[in-house]
Specification:
Structural class: alpha/beta
Number of helices: 3
Strand order of the largest sheet: 1-6-5-2-4
Shape: globular
Strand content: 15-25%
Order of helices and strands: EEHEEEHEHE
Distance between the termini: 21 Å
Radius of gyration: 13 Å
């Protein structure tokens, strides 16, 4: 529906410990719960700011893009791949991350939740 069937994706289990993860959810979603540990770099840039903040997204390494369920992140993946980045979508988004038992934390440092 949102992405194309050709949008490259990975499962939560496939996200490597040294991955660069770009979270494109809104600030209130990030504050409630985001990826805690287990990735090399985690950057929060809401979807609406990606074009203006493109310089913060690496060219030299793969970027795993995540949102709540995978729709917004699929759109960002398609855009990033069009402008010379190498990006993949986290299939199922933060819901899939949580369902896989991967850790979430809130901005307050407590266990996080997906909203």
């Amino acid at each position: 529906m949102f992405g194309h069937s050709s949008t490259p994706s990975v499962s939560a289990a496939q996200v490597a410990a040294d991955a660069f993860v770009l979270d494109v959810r809104e600030p209130y979603e990030w504050q409630a719960g985001h990826i805690a540990d287990g990735v090399g770099a985690l950057v929060h840039i809401p979807m609406g700011e990606v074009q203006q903040r493109l310089a913060e997204i690496p060219v030299e390494r793969e970027v795993v893009v995540v949102c709540k369920v995978g729709g917004r992140s699929a759109q960002v993946v398609d855009y990033l791949n069009q402008v010379g980045r190498t990006a993949v979508n986290l299939d199922g988004g933060m819901y899939a991350w949580a369902a896989a038992g991967r850790p979430l934390v809130s901005d307050a440092g407590a266990p996080g939740s997906v909203v």
